[in-house]
C-alpha cells in the first residue's frame, strides 16, 4: 500500500482528538483561536517588555477582549453542534499525499487572497460599507499592534471568515489541509498587522507589515492585501513604501527590513 507520509500525523490527530471533532464543519475555529493566542502573546511581549510600544494594561485589555470573543464564539458553536448536530461531514481515514496537501493549501491561499482582497476593496470603494462597517478597523492609528487585525465590525469579521472558509468547505478538502490553511492565513493576517517589519519575511509572497502600515496611516485604498501579496500587484493598488511614507515610530523598535 502506497501510504502517505502524512498518515502518521493524521492517525495521531484522529486518535487524540476523535473523529467526532472533525465531523463538525467548523472544526478549524479552535485552530484559528490557537494561532491568535500564540501570536498574540508573542508579539504582546515584544510590544510591552522589549520595545515598550504600548502599556502592559493596554495589551492585556486588548488581548482579553479579542480572546474572549474568539474563544466564546468557538465554544458556543461547538456546544450547539454537539447538541443539535445540524451538519456533519465525512472524515477520511487516509491522509492526503504530500503533493495534494501542498497544492491544495497553496490553492486555498490564492482563493482566500482573491476574495478577501475584493471584499477589502469594496469596503473602501463603497461609502456606505466604509461608513458603517470598515470605519471601525480604521479607527486604529498607525503604528499598528498585534491586536489591530481584530478590531473589526462584526459584519466585517463574518465576511472575512466566509471569504476564507466557505471555499475549502465547498471543495471538501481534507482536514489536514484545512488545519494547515487556517494556520497559514491567520498567521499571515496577524503579521500584516503586527507592527514590526520582520527581517527575512517573504514580503514578495505574503503582505508585510510595512506596506499595510502605509494603508492605515494614509487611509487610502492602497495595499489592501492581507493574505498574500499578489492582489495589490495584480489589480493596481500596490504602493511600495518609501522612507518618508513610514509612520514615525512611537517605540524603540528599529526598522529591520533588509
From TrEMBL:
Localization (cell): Membrane
Regions crossing the membrane: 27-51, 63-82, 94-119, 162-184
Keywords, comma-separated and alphabetical: Membrane, Transmembrane, Transmembrane helix
Entries under PANTHER family matching the protein: STEROL DESATURASE
Occurrences of domain Fatty acid hydroxylase (ranges): 106-237
The species this protein was found in: Mycobacterium gallinarum
Sections of the chain in a coiled coil: none
A single MF term (Gene Ontology): iron ion binding
Lineage of the organism: Bacteria, Bacillati, Actinomycetota, Actinomycetes, Mycobacteriales
InterPro entries: Fatty_acid_hydroxylase (IPR006694), Sterol_Desaturase_Related (IPR050307)
GO cellular component, one term: membrane
GO biological process: lipid biosynthetic process
Name of the protein in question: Fatty acid hydroxylase domain-containing protein
